[in-house]
Amino acid sequence: MVLERVPTGIPGFDELCEGGLLRDRTYLVSGTSGSGKTIFAMQYIVNGIQMFNEPGIFVATEERPQHLREHFSVFGWDLEKLEDENMLAIVDATSTKIGLPSDEKYIDVRPFDTRSLIDQMITIQDEIGARRAALDSTTSIGFSIQDPAKFRVELLKISTTMEILGLTSLFTCEIVDSSGISRFGVENFVTEGTIVLYYTRSENVRVRSLEIFKMRGSNHSKKIHPFEITDKGIVVHSREEVYSEI
Ligand SMILES: Nc1ncnc2c1ncn2[C@@H]1O[C@H](COP(=O)(O)OP(=O)(O)O)[C@@H](O)[C@H]1O
Ligand SMILES: [Mg+2]
């Protein structure tokens, strides 16, 4: 049986994993702060719209949507236009959390509630018929739930719902150092694969690299590949490897 692939469209990435992610599965993108998780997730969503005509949902728990629109305009991504075209829905799960009012179209309630997020996804699905989603980040949800066992169940509910809704998704996860692949030790159990982004110091410069740590059903690269953040977003150097110790 040939499994359907969902290309991320991120230059150099898809060739590391037989053409892309598996359709209707959820993947974890882990990395320390500043490693490029939010850019990776948004580039996946924007490419889905622009290259594959697949609408996308971006759940933002850490940055207000207006900041995302502003920051990502430097990569030439006009998020507002994509939203106006009903190809992109950004859920503001940030403002209410910090007690600010929001005039966004899609707002998640406070405190975090899985049922409400799922209802929101179903409503958006009816409106835009998304095929891709990003949840940025699971870590802030983990902090609001606290108990790892409960967090695992809630994440499983979210990922399963996304899969049933026909969404191929990325969940980001902020780790504190590069010794682990998840923050609460449970996020990787509810996802089909884990991509780890590194931002490590090598002498007096920092180097970005990534690794496909796990990807079920895929003969993926087992190497660590350098990547860059350019004025068009992430570019992975798939033919190069990083040998130094991470
Ligand atoms: N236009 C740009 N060109 C190059 N690097 C950039 C650009 N915009 C952001 N970055 C880099 O990306 C980092 C933020 O990436 P982000 O995806 O927000 O990280 P994370 O979500 O992992 O914390 C910044 O700290 C900066 O180093
Ligand atoms: Mg981020």
TrEMBL record:
Keywords on record: ATP-binding, Nucleotide-binding, Transferase
One of the record's GO molecular function terms: protein serine/threonine kinase activity
Domain KaiC residues, every copy: 4-246
SUPFAM superfamilies hit by this protein: P-loop containing nucleoside triphosphate hydrolases
EC number: 2.7.11.1
Domain of life per record: Archaea
Residue stretches in coiled coil: none
Primary enzyme class: transferase
PANTHER family to which the protein is assigned, alphabetical: UPF0273 PROTEIN TM_0370 (PTHR43637)
Protein name per the record: Putative circadian clock protein, KaiC
